[in-house]
Design brief:
This protein is an alpha/beta fold. It has eight helices and 14 strands. The protein has two domains: 26 residues; 296 residues, 3-Layer(aba) Sandwich (Rossmann fold). The strands form four sheets. It has a seven-stranded parallel sheet, with helices on both faces. Strands 2-14-13 form a three-stranded antiparallel sheet, with helices on one face.
Length: 344
């Protein structure tokens, strides 16, 4: 019996429709009722500026340099003195200073803590990241959650790499959630970012790293960030690389730690943003880390300073107590990072 091409085509289209419906239903059910988004109508103009810090080639540079990575251990801040960097227009900002080696030992490398990296994906097969990614999701038009860009793998390595012959990250004992919200060209739609945050919360993240910048305010994105904060998750976001003090989102939202980058002499890094809305500054100049395909490289920008802070935050989760009894540590860890008011 012969079957017409029209019948076959119709059957295929019906199957695709069913799958699309089921996927859409799953997505809707995965979003908590209190921030169930029924009015998400992002236009092309709205999402065009939701770029990862690496999408502009001039903003972050990558160099081929022989592998050698040393994390400089800075002195532990005291209650009486917090080192700061002076921004243009006299905006002061505290510098994140800590004895990484000592903190890592006391915190057992961050064991038991989960960090979600919302980025271009992670090469989970990299020698330095093997076994680190416990769950992943692809919210982009890319084929897989694998990193075809390099930005996400570089960020993940700074946070969690574990290879004394390659890169040793800030918190090598943690678990990673690979949340691919930007495609292989580094482009991210706001809807993907919002859903990525919700997914990370539901999957048990303690820290969410957002090395991403947008000049567009989004009420729904802020709701997603507030939802994460209310559930005890600390969100750390890049302040951006425009050498300006105008607001950058999501770093500008109240319930995030906004991170800018320092150069090698603790001055504001080239093109790094600044302002009274920036919460902390950290090393972000020529940072050596992992790249897809068991490769390595140097990158500069607030993306990588943000990863540094996320790694420190993960360690602090294992050494800081719940002082106010709210069964959450994100507020205590945030205070420790922004004020330096902790001792090891």
């Amino acid at each position: 019996m012969k079957v017409s091409y029209a019948f076959i085509l119709g059957a295929i289209l019906l199957a695709i429709s069913v799958v699309t419906f089921i996927q859409g239903l799953y997505t809707s059910l995965s979003i908590p009722d209190q921030i169930y988004y029924t009015d998400l109508k992002h236009t092309a103009n709205q999402v065009a500026r939701a770029d990862f810090c690496s999408t502009i080639a001039s903003r972050e540079k990558e160099q081929d340099i022989d592998p050698e990575f040393i994390i400089a251990n800075k002195p532990i801040p005291s209650d009486d003195f917090i080192k700061s960097v002076e921004f243009p227009n006299s905006y002061p900002c505290p510098i994140l200073e800590n004895d990484v080696f000592k903190l890592k030992q006391l915190a057992n490398g961050g064991a038991g803590v989960t960090v979600a990296v919302l980025d271009t994906g992670i090469d989970k097969n990299h020698n330095d990241l093997t076994g680190k990614v416990v769950r992943e999701i692809n919210l982009t038009n890319s084929v897989t959650a694998r990193d075809g860009n390099g930005h996400g793998t570089h960020v993940a390595g700074i946070i969690a790499a574990d290879n004394t012959n390659g890169v040793l990250g800030i918190a090598p004992g943690i678990h990673l959630l690979n949340v691919k919200v930007a495609n292989d060209q580094g482009r991210c739609e706001l809807l993907a970012l919002e859903h990525g945050i919700i997914w990370a919360v539901q999957e048990g993240a303690n820290v969410i790293n957002l090395s991403i910048e947008s000049v567009e305010y989004s009420d729904n994105l802020e709701k997603a960030i507030n939802y994460a904060w209310e559930n005890g998750i600390l969100i750390i976001a890049a302040a951006g690389n425009n050498r300006a003090n105008s607001p950058v989102y999501p770093a500008y939202y109240e319930n995030t730690i906004a991170v800018t980058a320092l150069d090698k002499v603790d001055s504001l890094a080239p093109l790094a943003n600044y302002g009274d809305w920036v919460d902390v500054a950290a090393s972000g100049c020529e940072v050596y880390s992992t790249l897809p395909g068991n490769n390595y490289g140097y990158k500069t920008g607030t993306s990588f300073a943000t990863a540094y802070v996320s790694g420190v935050a993960a360690l602090l989760y294992n050494v800081i107590a719940d002082e106010n009894g709210n069964i959450c540590l994100n507020d205590e860890v945030r205070k420790a990072i922004e004020t330096g008011n902790y001792r090891l």
